[in-house]
Amino acid sequence: MILVWLLFCFGSTLFPQSTFDSKFFFYIVNETSGKDYIVDDKNLTIGGIGVTFDYKYKNYLVKGTFSNNRFYNSSFSNYNDYQRITYIGNRTEHSFDFDNSKATLDYKNNFFSYSIGKSNYKIGDGYRSIIFSDSTPSFPNFNFTWNFYRNLDFSYMHGILSSSIYDERTNEELYSSFNKDQYDRHVVYHKINYRIDWIKDLDLSIGFSEMVAYGARGFDFNYIFPFNFYWSIQHSLGDKDNVQMHGYINLKIKDISFFYNLLIDEWTPELTFEEINRNWFGHHGGIKLNEVFFHDRLIIEVIWNDHRIYRHRFQINDFYSYNNPIGFWAGPHSQELFIMYEANLSETNSICFRYTNSSRGELTKEMILDQYRTIEYKRFSGIVESKEMITFELEKQFYENIKIKMGVSLVNWTNAGFEPYQNSDNIYDKSELIDIEKISFNTSVFYNF
């Protein structure tokens, strides 16, 4: 990291047109009752230190963020929208460490942009996403966007995810049986987007995309070419990969935006309206209002995911990274109502209100087998974990480098501690689960220098 910093400092001297900026930062977050990060009603502290940098030269930008973090509690629930924890180190009875890192080389002109490095990749016009979410861990990828004709854009991304499926032979021979080596899982995405912006006070975008998850064979050149039709390619390869399609519409009228996303994993049109169907769909719609009263915005979103999306009969093809879905944070067989209101009271003061009501159900191996046999499964017929949470926060900026946030969260959590993926044999001890109501007060300090 020091060598990188020195390199860019020297580069800004060598090239007068370039600029370099870097900041070290420190943060600490305390939740008196753990919010929804942990199941128990116990105090929780998260802290970390890191560095950010960016180097600009003409149309190029090199930027990065690195941090080392400590979670002062031994348990962490995966039923929340913070999915960035990857490798866990120095685990003790009371804490564990985890790292976050992002670094990219970007280029942009009036018609074309690209990025290569390790980063998050978000798709969708909402705060949430059912395609690619920025709440998931960063991953190595290359992506570009090309405005090739008037209001037509084409985007492409190819990345590598963590499959968490370990190569036992390699680990035994090279790593003394420690789980260090795992099979690569690749993800490919391309999108065509069309914009209508010549109507006064109206901006309309419609688009179509495909994405494929495949693995255990290195880069497949069938998917490296951006302009292939991946649904056909996947069929020609013997249906061994996992292809999903995505259509969307975004409509903006002055300060009001509407959007809808449809994710299609599998579909048999003639069975669409039958009770036993192959509607392997994810739905995500919402509305955004800017300047409701003053410098503020209101977001309302609804997500509904079928139990058959994201996962595949061959586990290597799941749309997951580090055992977390790369789309909606609650995964398949889930739903959420999300409301957020943010307002800037002044240049240094802001408030934020969030409401979320979510549920998720079982995801067993038997359910995967049944979905390929077109056997009916009644939604939420097994154990259902649900959570309703209201959060209010006040943020205050001091000087240019200190930010303090204080707030409170009211959590009503049913069947807390449920792990849908462990229920592989359709047997689960419900006595291990708890229903909990708690109030968690939050104090956060962020400092950069």
How would you describe this structure to a colleague?
- By secondary structure, this protein is mainly beta.
- The chain has five helices and 21 strands.
- It has helices at 2-14, 168-174, 221-224, 230-236, 365-372, and strands at residues 19-31, 44-57, 60-72, 88-89, 96-108, 112-119, 139-149, 152-166, 182-196, 202-215, 242-253, 256-266, 280-290, 296-305, 320-321, 324-325, 334-344, 349-361, 384-398, 402-416, 434-448.
- It has an 18-stranded antiparallel barrel.
- The longest helix is centred in the first third of the chain and has 13 residues, at 2-14.
Features:
single chain, 449 residues, mainly beta, 18-stranded antiparallel beta barrel, two-stranded antiparallel ribbon
Gap from first CA to last CA: 17 Å
Helix content: under 10%
Strand count, sense and barrel status of the largest sheet are:
18 strands, antiparallel, barrel
Anisotropy-based shape = globular
Structural class: mainly beta
* Secondary-structure element string: HEEEEEEEEHEEHHEEEEEEEEHEEE
Kindly report the average pLDDT value: 89
How much of the sequence lies in strands comes to over 45%
How many strand elements? 21
- Count up the helices: 5
Q: Low-confidence stretches at least 5 residues in length (pLDDT < 50)?
A: none
Rg over CA atoms, rounded to whole Å, is 23 Å
